[in-house]
Amino acid sequence: MNFFLQVFGNPELYASTLAMATPLALAALGGTFSERTGVVNIAMEGIMLVGAFFGVMIAVLTHSSLLGLLAGMVAGIITSLALAWPAIRLQSDQVIIGMAINVFAGGLTAFLLNTVYGYNGTPTNTPFLPTITIPGLVKIPFLGQVIGQQNLLVYVMLILVVVGHYVLFHTNIGLQMRAVGEHPEAAATVGVSVVNIRYLGVSIGGMLSGMAGVYLSLGLLNGFDVNMTNGRGYIALAAMIFGKWTPFGSLLSSLLFGFAIALSISLQGYQVSANLVGMLPYVLTIVALTGIIGRSRAPLADGIPYEPSK
Amino acid sequence: MALLEIAGLRKVFGQVVANDHVDLTVMPGETHAILGENGAGKSTLIKMISGLYKPDAGTILFDGALRNFNNPREAIVAGIGVVHQHFMLIPALTVAENVVLGIHGGWGRYDRKTAEEQVSKLSKEVGLPLDPTRKVEDLPVGMQQRVEIVKALYRQAKLLVLDEPTAVLTPQETEDLFEVVHHLNQDGIPVIFISHKLDEVRAVAHKVTVMRAGKTVFESPVGSASAQQLAYWMVGRDIVLQTQRDVVQSGATVLSVNDLTVFDDRHTKKVDNVSFAVKEGEIFGLAGVDGNGQTELVEAITGLRKLAHGSVYLQDKDISRASVAKRIEQGIAYIPQDRQRDGLVLPFSIADNLQLREVSKAPFSKGGWLQKRAARKHAEQLVEEFDIRPRNVDLPVGDLSGGNQQKVILAREMARRPMLLVAVQPTRGLDVGAIEGIHKHLLALRSEGRSILLVSLELDEILMLSDRIGVMHAGHLVAVYNNGEVSREELGLAMTGEITAKEAGA
Question: Do B72 and A189 touch (CB under 8 A)?
Fold first, then answer.
């Protein structure tokens, strides 16, 4: 009983949950935008890696973590265009391109890390994204310890989820995105440009995945390391599906996965096998992807290339 | 002044002339029916009016200007609203979202409330009350059609085109639709009503234009044309070319279908208590307009669909519940309607396709190993016998012409000397030469004393080949005639449901 209270009664666990959930939620939100327009995005893992690397590189060069953040987002968009162009223009298989981007990004960032920074890795004096303290809120017991003081991007993520929900369900552009992801032919007959909308969706996905990567390298951890995403892109994919392709759903399931990660970290101090506990988030991912808990329905045209009529 | 004036419209696909010399004039406030059999060119005409196809020749004058639509959007902007047979709706979105989609470009806020109010108001005004907040996927088909009509009217359509609108409706929904059409006419909006059902055309339209073989052949006010006259124009006045058919003594019953009832995937009754028999050495032609239960009937006979009630016997064996493989073994061969989807594996070679059905048996395989030489030999024989061109058996069938693809299927199915061949639209989309070849083979099979159940939408084909003709309408076998004892007009009337439950010479 004492043990449970020690673990689950500790606000640190929940603060850590939020921190761990942030990169997942950002990428999952991005994936939601991509797949809502009908482009399957499994490239989040690779895009996060690219974003993480260029975030560090530009932050080191300019001594500004915010410029690093911007660079990571731009790198994310550019990488996502490598998915968008063949998927939309050439009507290629989106899963295969996504896979190729992931493999390529792993190799590219490892190569750049060695070439630019050599054996020692990224400099230890890299400027990191600021931690924000919310006055007032931080004073509230327990709750304040959980969300009163967090990294800048944690708050940005929470805002983006709300904005994302509004855009997707309460704006014309969002309506067009959902229409294109469900039935592009019908959307086209009423004058919606399927191609432009899909580019937009994939780019938003790339931007947010890039942001998630920067959070990893300039927020959660210090610096870039080879394959530092460690499968988080795939967990984000699971969070998106588990969240039924909605922003709030993505956030909630990201929190669930974040909790599993945070728990596995906090349990490491106790007499539990670290390897066993470390599996927790991944086991949860598999469970989510098999659809055992509540089947969710993907956008109907998700992953199906659109061919304009002759 | 006419709202729509079409003159000399022509559209050619490859060697097929889909539309030729098509003329159509639609006045404001009238309902103009376009009547014709399947393949008469109605859909092609509609696709040209709605901007999906570009005409090869001829003019479209709409609302006082010469139109040359590059895409459907331009036709919508001009004021042409089309309700396609397959609805262009997004199931996961609400009624209101579907109606206003694409109108308000831009990025701004989607004003759900205003949109819903507008849609609700408009739908009531035109007599098609709709709940704008419901998701389209939760609506019955009749309601979905209303959404399409309201969508067109919301876009300020000056002309509404309904492509086979009653095909998916219940009788009550059909009545409601007619009301709406009258209502629209009163508001000055003309409706083009595409149909192959005589009774409906007479119930709803002011004027009728009949299409046959890609041409408009007849135009008249509905009141001054009799059903017989329309049926006559619809099925054509060409004299049937009499193919030489030797008289074969009809022998024992090969296939007997008893009180068969079949449902489709949507649990609608498509075959209703149908009974008939096919005898040895007989071609039994099944005529009817597409979608009157022929597909489901054939699927029940070949084992692709479960039967709800009744039985199917092959000779004296009950095969009602036998598997497809079992039925093949018992001697049923099958030429499916869609040769590319169901009949062939397009990337496979001619030789592989020809051995496909019996690949697990000798001589095509031994102990699980393919005997390529046997397959080649078999294929080379058939390619010669059925004149499949080119003669290269290693060629993927996807590279062959439609006629030669069909010959591959025919060769595969006939090589087994089946007791019963079920042929669905065996000459669909083929040129005259290829059609003749297929017909010759079918008649040859008959001369050997085999039986054929021929399903075709082409009345000419049915009349040319069949010994007896059954007509299906709305799931019923409404009549069975001996060929030669029935006129085209009579058949046409039976197909459209004007004659019911007439038994002749069965």
Answer: yes
Q: Is the CB of residue B267 less than 8 Å away from at least one CB of chain A?
A: no
CATH superfamily of the domain spanning B4-235:
P-loop containing nucleotide triphosphate hydrolases (3.40.50.300)
Q: How confident is the model over A116-158, as pLDDT tens digits?
A: 888 777 887 888 888 888 888 888 888 888 888 899 999 999 9
- What's the complex ipTM? 0.78
* A186-208: average pLDDT: 91
Q: In this structure, are residues B402 and B429 in contact, taking their beta carbons and an 8 Å threshold?
A: yes
Q: Domain B239-331+418-506 in CATH: superfamily?
A: P-loop containing nucleotide triphosphate hydrolases (3.40.50.300)
How far apart CA B415 and CA B354 sit, in angstroms, is: 9
Which chain A residues are closer than 8 Å to B89 by Cβ? 183, 186
Q: Three-state SS for B369?
A: strand
Nearest to A233 by CA among A14, A19, A18, A25: A25
Q: Is B439 on the interface with A (CB under 8 A)?
A: no
Q: What is the tally of structural domains in chain A? A: 1
For the whole model, what pTM was predicted?
A: 0.71
A120 close to B (CB below 8 A): no
Residue A130 maps to a domain: yes
Size of interface A-B (CB pairs under 8 A): 69
Residue A141 lies in a domain: yes
pLDDT tens by residue, B228-277: 788 788 776 543 444 556 666 667 899 999 999 999 887 888 999 999 99
Chain B residue with minimal CA distance to A185?
Answer: B88
The dihedrals phi and psi of A206, each to the nearest 5 degrees, come to -65, -40
A36 CB within 8 Å of a chain B CB: no
Inter-chain CB proximity B97 and A179 less than 8 Å: yes
**How far is A283 from A279, CA to CA, in rounded Å?**
6
The percent of residues above 90 in pLDDT, for chain B, comes to 38
Contact call for A192 and B76, based on CB within 8 A: no
